[in-house]
Every structure is written in C-alpha cells, then in structure tokens.
Amino acid sequence: MKFKKADLILVAFLLIATALSFILIRANSTDGAYVTVWVEGAPTQKYRLSKNGTYVLNGGTNTMVIQDGKVHMEDADCPDKLCIHMGTISYTGQAIICLPNKLVLTIEGVPGETDL
Amino acid sequence: MRGASKAKRIAYLSVITALAMVLSYLESLFPPLVAVPGVKVGLANIAVVFALYKLGFSQACTVSVLRVFLVSVLFGSAVSLSYSGAGAVVSLLGMFFLKRTGVFSVPAVSISGAVLHNLAQTAIACIMLDTSVLKYYIPVLLLTGIAAGVVIGLVAAVLIERVDVQWEQ
Q1: Fold held by A34-108
Q2: Whole-model pTM?
Q3: Which of B29, B110, B135, B145 might form a disulfide with B115, Cβ 3.0–4.6 angstroms?
Q4: 0.85 surpassed by complex ipTM
Q5: Which residues in chain B have their CB less than 8 angstroms from residue A12's CB?
Q6: How far is CA B146 from CA A61, B33, B97, B114, B127, in A?
Q7: CA gap B161, B52 in Å, rounded
Q8: Which among A2, A40, A104 is the nearest to B105, CB-wise?
Q9: What is the largest CA-CA distance in chain A?
Q10: Element (H or E) spanning B48, and its range?
C-alpha cells in the first residue's frame, strides 16, 4: 500500500482545522464566574465559583463539587461515568456533559461579576 | 468469489456484520481512552471499510446499518442508536465519495470516516441536549478522529490487500 499526495493534503487540512478550532475556542475563553446547570437544554441553577461546596443535582443523579474556582463531577448514577472522568473546568466555554442524564455544566461570566 | 451464489453472498455479508458487532462489543469492554463523549477507536470501522472496498457501497451500508442497529438494541439504548446511527451514515457517505475520487489511499478514506463520524455524532448530541457547548470538543474530536482513522485504515488496508474476496471494482 502506498500513500498518495492527496492523503497528505487531507491530513494537513484536518490538522489545520484542528489547530484553528482550538485557537478560536481558547482565544474566546477566560476564567469564569459561575457554573450553570442545564437539564435537557434548560438552565436550572447557577452556582458561584468563588464559593466552595458540594451540590446534588437533577434530583440526585449527579453530584457536583466546586473547589477553588474549579468545578468537577464527583458522582453520577450513569454506567459510563464519563462526566466524572472529564476532570475539572474553570474557563468560560468549558463544559462537563453527562449524556445519559441529559445534564450539562457550563462555565460563564467574568470574575467579579456579582449578578447570577 | 466473483459471481458467487446468492446464498454465499448472504453468508459472507452475515459473517462480516457479525465481526463488526463483535468488534463493537470488544471495544465497549475497554475503558474510554479520552474522557470526551464520542471519542472511540471505532474498531467496527475495520469491517465497514473492508466491506466498502471489497463488496461495494451497498453491502457496506448493510453491514454498517445492521451493526449499529443490532449493537444499540443489544448493548445500548435508543439514545445511542441516534448518535451512532447518524455517525455511521455520514461517515459511510463521506468514505464512499472520497474513495470514488480515486486519489486517496485506504487510511485517508478511513480518516475521513472517523472524523465525520465524530462530528456527526457531536452534532446530534448538540441537538438532543439543545446546547452548543459541545463545540468546545471539536479540536479533540478532530485530532482523535485522525489518530483513530489512521490505525483503523492501516489495519483495513492490510486486510483488503490480503483477503482474497472481490465482488465489485
């Protein structure tokens, strides 16, 4: 099997697309002020990142922890536990997603913002 | 196998579909490599790429659609059916057109399949969750798609070269 010139062009194109999308997303992100909890596409609650705490979400399906301005999922009742493995988030635009429970956490706002 | 009887063709198609299902199941046993929804190696794509090159587009469709449907019914859910169904359809169409241009090798075709699969799946997830936050994962999905596509494509290329079956092209 031989590689062709078009293969290189395709891979180069995809790598450039990857780099561009990464730069675009990072350029638009800063430290956030609060985390919004979305259930089935609707925002249900907001929590300040400046206040540490453990919160049970969505009637007990997920448990979220806010610590030192960062958010992570502590527990979930879904089988894959992907949301727990997604780690901590703190920049605007970052999100933790739990597909089985249709739950999304997003970071928004700018530090110092007082309105929720 | 050229001009094989109908029974032989059905048997062959069934074996490849079964293989794709086993590969899907095998992959589900491993913990996720990257903690992002939709990121997978996509072992079953070996069978689909093989079918696309050896048996033709319509047979590859059969393998892919049956695989997604059966795996979702057996091990997944209606939700996983919509994600992987969209991924499978878009990915197969993309691979078909890239292959037809005749200027790409097997790994490149497989890369396009993997990347399109990831993007289509993410698009469906965005629609179902009614959110655009998944766009944050586009770079990760593109990069892992390229990596997975290369691996799958190289394996498929070896199989296409060595396995002595040819129905079309």
Answers
A1: mini-chromosome maintenance (MCM) complex, domain 2 (2.60.320)
A2: 0.78
A3: B145
A4: no
A5: none
A6: 34, 15, 18, 7, 24
A7: 13
A8: A2
A9: 61
A10: helix B44-54
